[in-house]
Amino acid sequence: HADSAMYHAKSQGRNNVQFFSPELDLFAMRRMRMEHDLREALASRSFELHYQPQVDARSRTIVGVEALVRWRNSARETIMPGEFIEIAEQSGLILPLGECVIDEACRQLRIWRDQGYTALRMAVNLSALQLRSANLLDFVAATLLKHEIGGEHLELEITESMVMDNPGACIAKLRALRDMGIHLAIDDFGTGYSSLSNLRLMPIHSLKIDRSFVRNIESDSDDLVICTATIALAHNLGLKVVAEGVETSAQRDLLAGHGCDVLQGYLFSKPVDAAAMDALLAVSY
Ligand code: C2E
Ligand code: MG
Ligand code: MG
Ligand code: MG
C-alpha cells in the first residue's frame, strides 16, 4: 500500500480533477490512474526499449538481444514493466503496446543489421493476450516485411502458462510463426505449469531457464540439479538452452560447463538503451 499511496500522491500533481471516495481503495484508484496514464503514454509514444545481450556460452560473443520495454512517464521517471505490464494486459492495452514493441524492435534490428551485425537475433516478449489475438500473425508478417527482416532473425518469448490456456489453438499459432522462420523460446522455464507432453508438441527452438534457478546454483544442489536436468531435457528434445539472470562468473562457468548454450544476465550487461547497446556490440559481437 505504501507505493499505491505514493503513486497516487505523485499523480495529484499533474491532474486538476481529483475524486476521492472512501469506497474506492487505493489499489483500484491506482489501477484506474495507471490505465489512464498508459493510454496517454501510448498516444504520446512514451515507451522505449532497452536491450540486454545474450551471449554465446563458448565464444562469449553477443548472439542476440532481448528487447525489454520501459515507460518514461511525464516526470521523466523510468517505470519498469513489472509495474505496468499486468495492468496493460488486463485492460487490453498490451495489444497496441505489444505492436509498438514488435515494430520498434524490428526497426532497431534493421539498423543493427545495416551496421553489419547480421547474425544478431532480436528476442521480444509476447503476452498471453497477444498470442490469443487473431491479428498477431498478420501483424508480425507485415512488420518483418516493413523492416525487411527475415523471420529467422526474430525470436518470440512465450511462457508455459500462456500455452496451457488453450494448447491446441496456441500450438497451431506457434506453428504458423515457426513456418515464417521465427524462433520461439519458452521464457521463465520451470516456473509455470505445463506438461512435458505439451512441451514435446510445441514447435519451439529454445528454453530459457528462469533466473530463480540460476541465483543459488553455486550453493543449492537442488537448483544445480534443476538447471542440469533442464539442459539435458532441452538438448534431448533438440532445443537450445538460455540461462537468465547470470550475475557471477561462477554461475557462468558452471552453466557453460554443463553445456548451457546461451547466457544472459547482469554479469554481461543490464538492459541498456540502443546507444549503449551499440557500444556493447562494437566490442563483443
Ligand atoms: P523476462 O522476459 O523474464 O525478462 C528478464 C528480466 O530479468 C528483465 O526484467 C531483466 O532486466 C531482468 N534481468 C536480466 N538479467 C538479470 C540478472 O542478472 N539479475 C536480475 N536480478 N535480473 C535480471 P525487466 O526488464 O524488468 O522485465 C520484467 C518482465 O517484464 C520480463 O521478464 C517480461 O516478462 C516482461 N516484459 C518486459 N518487456 C516486455 C514486453 O515488451 N512485452 C511483454 N509482454 N512483457 C515484457
Ligand atoms: Mg523474456
Ligand atoms: Mg524470463
Ligand atoms: Mg517473463
From TrEMBL:
Residues 31-285 form the EAL domain. This is Diguanylate cyclase/phosphodiesterase with PAS/PAC sensor(S). The chain holds residues 401 to 685 of 685 of the full protein.
